[in-house]
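Q: Predict the bound structure with glutamine.
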Amino acid sequence: MNDELRIMDIRGLTIKKFHESLIKKQFSASEITKAFFDYIEKKDTEIGAYLRLSKDSALSQAEVVDEDLSAGREVDILAGVPLAIKDNILIENEPTTAASKILANYRAAYDATVIKKLKQAGAVFLGKTNMDEFAMGSSTENSGFKITKNPHDLERVPGGSSGGSAAAVAADMAVAALGSDTGGSIRQPAGFCGVVGLKPTYGAVSRYGLIAMASSLDQIGPITKTVEDAEILFDIIKGKDQLDSTSVESQIANRKSQIADYTIGIPKEYFVAGLNKEVGEAIDEAIKKLKSLGIKFKEISLPHTKYALSCYYIIMPAEVSANLARFDGIRYAQISNLKSQISNLRDIYFKQRGEGFGEEVKRRIILGTFVLSSGYYDAYYSKAQKVRKLIKEDFDKAFKEVDVILTPVSPTPAFKIGEKTDDPLQMYLSDIFTIPVNLAGLPAISIPVNLKAQNSKLKANLPIGFQLIGKHFHEADILAVGQQYEQVC
Ligand code: GLN
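A: Predicted complex:
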């Protein structure tokens, strides 16, 4: 393959197209893997999506696929597909840092369950992607190592915390990626980068081997170029896992036979002052297209929405403070250049944690320790759990009337690098539409409104996403509506 051909091959490759081309022998798995690395080497100097590449292991994975093909063995739809993996998901023997300096020297001792499943399907792992440290953030600016830029505008953030994964897919530096979502970290960067992001129902995908942020909220999910690809990846990674007691056997519901049988709810609490005009217009455009498919719409109310952010910023840091206690500077490797400054146990804790964790992580550990401390537990943590229940009940009630709920993903398109770094509260507000979904444990997908920007009447140059929320384990509904949307936009 010459250079031109390589780039043409890579551009716009979906899992589906990749598989067809591989089977037709338009390229071999090894050839295309090399082509991806060549392209990443050029392109990623300006984007910064990857923290590390794993060329040798990727090429050996690709060779196995080529051997299978030349021996005439049947291969999985994911065979040879080059994937990017968020750096909080463990791949055996590979460095895994969650973009934190405290894990700079850590190598994973085992595969996450999702990785095991993807390996069995023959996927190729190109490398690990940048993220906000321990997945805390909305812009990938909280990475302990570097920032990532939005491929649509290099002055803007790609969103976060799975910003590296979303940017890699949007810039054709991977066919698809995995991210994790605790309060919006798959859906918001997907929205900012113009790609698709699916957060599965809590429990649908095993969290074993995901570096925990807030265990009652975290889920792993796909970031892809199409809704169809999101479904392909989800089908492979989902299911009960003995190693994660919160995972359940996929009791995944079926989609309805007719798209016109769907009723979509529009929650009035999500369309209030503060919603950026372009986002509002884009959402109207998406609704119009869905109506043209015969889908019915209904206004609904989710009255406790206004408490979701406060509720999340109590429950999440409480769980963060417990989960991050394990990073004591002794286990999971030490920061080597601090060793000379350490003379006793206290030094280890203070120096390793003090230097190893970034500002945002420390802020949340302190906040979480405070809300869990005796005397404050009832006032904060217990109360937040009660509010969480009310938020969940709002959704249960709404889902008696509608099958799917549609909202914006974020109040604004991608913001400028540095715009919100001095004001954590402004940063937290960018997750206002994604957080209630995690508190309720529901599945939700972020889909670009202007999938084919050239056909769109929208003025906005930056990608804007809309969110479809489904009932528990009804991924099939949001995927079905999303796939129909893709056909008409
Ligand atoms: N941006 C949110 C936060 O900082 C969500 C993060 C996530 O989903 N991992 O908490």
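A: The two ends are 33 Å apart (CA to CA).
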